[in-house]
Amino acid sequence: MYKVFVNDRPLFLTNQIGKETDFQLFLLESVDIPQLIGSMFRDKVKNAYLYHPDEREILKTLKSKLKVTKAAGGLVYNKKGEVLFIHRNGKWDLPKGGIEKGEKRKAAAVREVEEETGVGKLRIIRKLPKTYHIFRRHNEYRLKITHWFEAVTEYSGPLQAQVEEGIDKVAWLAPEQVQEALSNSYENIKLLFQEGQLVR
User: Fold this and answer.
1) What is the pTM of this model?
2) Three-class SS of residue 161?
3) DSSP line for 67-129
4) CA 122, CA 104: separation in Å to the nearest integer?
5) pLDDT tens by residue, 168-199
6) Helices 187-194 and 175-182 sit at what angle, rounded to 10 degrees?
7) Tens digit of each residue's pLDDT (9 = 90 or more) over 45-75
């Protein structure tokens, strides 16, 4: 099962029909995706399942119906065990951005962290789960797939917010501050933490 966020509302891609009463079920093969997504953006559909019988084909089928954008980002720890966060559009987020043509995912994650925060000397530790969300650009809906990497750094220099990307603050947050930041963050970022993937 995949969890795709539409305006912070979950859209589950599944090959099993659940007995949830508050979830609407749609057939992935035949549903009008832009219409469904529009309904979710307007809060007419709150929680939805997209059903396809073949689990291996689910994501491929959704990707065939939407333009796909790929991004990469980092969950970065310093020597004190603090996590690197950015603040943009009134919410806390992790540094990430688009993968350039011909660029490797790890290299994109490192570049984006450095550009958005000024933090260098990154060492990738491991790959983390991908996140999926749908956004609107140029009057069309797009599926963004973000590849996440856990990294550590010994960098102790100044933090530099990439203002031209709308970032107004960069901060190292201690573990006890992370939960507070997540209360004002995006669901796909919370999901990374909820799955216990990022507990050090």
Assistant:
1) 0.91
2) coil
3) EEEEEEEEEEE-TTS-EEEEEETTEEE--EEEPPTT--HHHHHHHHHHHHH----EEEEEE--
4) 15
5) 999 999 999 999 999 999 999 998 887 554 44
6) 140
7) 988 999 999 988 999 999 999 999 999 999 9
d(CA 11, CA 23) in angstroms, rounded, equals 9
Structure tokens at 111: 């570049």
- Confirm if 13 and 64 have CB atoms less than 8 A apart: no
Indicate the residue type of 83. V
Token look-up 């797939």 returns 145
Residue type present at position 9:
R
Tokens of 73: 């980002």
Provide the token pair at 95: 């540094």
Strands 167-173, 83-88: pairing kind = antiparallel
Query: DSSP 3-state assignment of 140?
Result: strand
d(CA 199, CA 124): 16
Copy the structure tokens of residue 175.
């573990």
CA of 8: how far to CAs of 40, 43, 130, 156, 191, in Å? Answer: 10, 11, 16, 34, 11
Residue at 160: amino acid letter: Q
- Kindly list the distances between the CA atom of residue 150 and the CA atoms of 68, 125, 128, in Å, as whole numbers in the listed order: 23, 6, 7
